[in-house]
Amino acid sequence: MLIGKKLFVYSDGNKQLNKIDLRLEQIELEKNTLVNEQMELTKKIKLLREQPKDEEIIIEIALAEQRIIIINKDLERLEPKWMEENLELLQKKMELEITIDEIKRYFPELIWKEYYRIKENVDNPVVEVKHQMCTGCFIPLSKSDLDKWRRGKELVKCDVCGRILA
Predict the structure, then answer these.
(1) Residues of the chain whose pLDDT is less than 50?
(2) Which domain holds residue 85?
């Protein structure tokens, strides 16, 4: 595989890992939000039952109990979906980590220093070449850079934006 393409796979893999981690956090937050609301409502019902009964308290208890029933149904419905999505995300994350680890070991330290130096300045340090143009700055490549890029045996950077070309 060409040097730039491998670096592109590495960079893209890291972006996907970040998205997976974010989604895993979102799933946990959604679940915790419902469970916490359920616990708060249970505490509220307990406190309301200790007070003298009047019409407002009875209505408030009934509303809280109704909300708990809805939360239980939501949890019952969503739990299998969350578990399945969690499993799929963790599997994809593991595959990406293996791929990224293989790519890390493939290149010498000098290439990684250059990659991270570029990454300090731009979010996407590796960009694809499409229609003989850098997709980072959309400026056509010089013939010599295009030839080097096609051979793929050395690290080729855009003369204009400095990104690594894949």
Answers:
(1) 1
(2) 1-106
